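Known limitations

Files may contain more than one protein. Parsers should not assume a single record per file. Below, a two-record file is shown to illustrate correct handling: read the sequence, read the token line, then continue until end of file.
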Amino acid sequence: MAKRAVGLVLYVLLAGCSGSDPGPGGNVEFDAGSSGDVGGSSCAGRMCGTNGAGGSCGSCGAGFTCTAAGQCIETNPVATCRSECGVRQCGADPGLNCAGRFCGTNGGACPTGTACMLGQCVCTPNCSGRTCGPDGCGGTCAPGCGRGFQCGGAGTCDIDPSSRWVLTVTTGTVATQGAAGAWDPFGGAPDPQVCITISGRSTCTPYANDTFSTSWNFAFPETTAGVLQAGVMTSYVDYDSGTANDRICGDYNLAIDRATFAAGGTTVGCGSSGWTFTLRAQ
């Protein structure tokens, strides 16, 4: 009987040590941040917040907030510039959240002599005070020089001394009386005529008979601008075939300046008498 009792005790002790299953009464620990289900709770797809069963799926770090969907987002997100400079060389960056940012390498500015146009540094023509010559961008300043003129170093059109011109005497008027009274005996009107000496050669218009106002449109021999600038001798006379001509205006050395060339002519006169001429470059 004693042997049977001892055997029974040994059987029970051996049976209790033979398995590792803790059984229903054992303790099981779960990670609060796991995605496994515990009693109907779930952290699948969640980074933070409750697991639906009073537990936690984790917490967010500093500067982040947990949303209702269990996601960590920045509490005060800093807007990120999405630059759209691309090939732009200058100006403001038109991208989203890019206020205060610029394209290019010079704070949005362009090098001297260029200007920002549609994001590109474009050469700015320099024609201030200039009417001709290079504009600094491969072009020329407008309007340029006409025939008989050449562009000077200051960007203005000057007379080309070698250019050739024709001086044409167009009209003339004569005062009703000269210094000595009537021009002709018995109070008759004068016979006006203009003579010009160019390069030593004197040429005259036809005389107009008995008139105080006349139109000639007489072209004198072609010559250079340099000769006209140096001066040509002119005389305005009352032609008289029998005696010496009376001077309507005294002999005058006409030196034509740039303004007269540019204007295409002018009027030469004395008192109420005078004659008009035009200039045309060839």
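...continuing to the second record:
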Amino acid sequence: MAEANKRLELDAKNNSQAYDIEVLNGNDSEVIEMDLMLGVADLHIPQALAAAESAIAGNQPPIMVAGSSSSSETESDDSSDEESDDDGNDDEETSCPTEHETSNTVKEDAVREATGKSRSKKRTRIVELS
């Protein structure tokens, strides 16, 4: 890698016009496209993943409705979940999704429908590397 960088630097010094993006020589288009999504992003929530995929595809990410969640709602939901989990039934396979989980899915679907942007087959997918 270091050797390739040295060659590139030397070539850029010898032929600077070939590497100057501000010089148009007639063979170039008037638009310079830059891909800034280089690197690794930590996407821990589905909304972040959807926004990143939309950005890569060149779409505007869906806008979440203001007041869709707040820290006070989350805290109260967490405390009510703890109280309801103490009923002695530890069987998680038969448990239903909580109201909070269900409402997030419904809200995401509503936002996609409202913006008219559903997941298309041509949309770039972000792949998690292990």
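Parsers that stop after the first record will miss the second one. For reference, the second record is described as follows. The radius of gyration is 24 Å.
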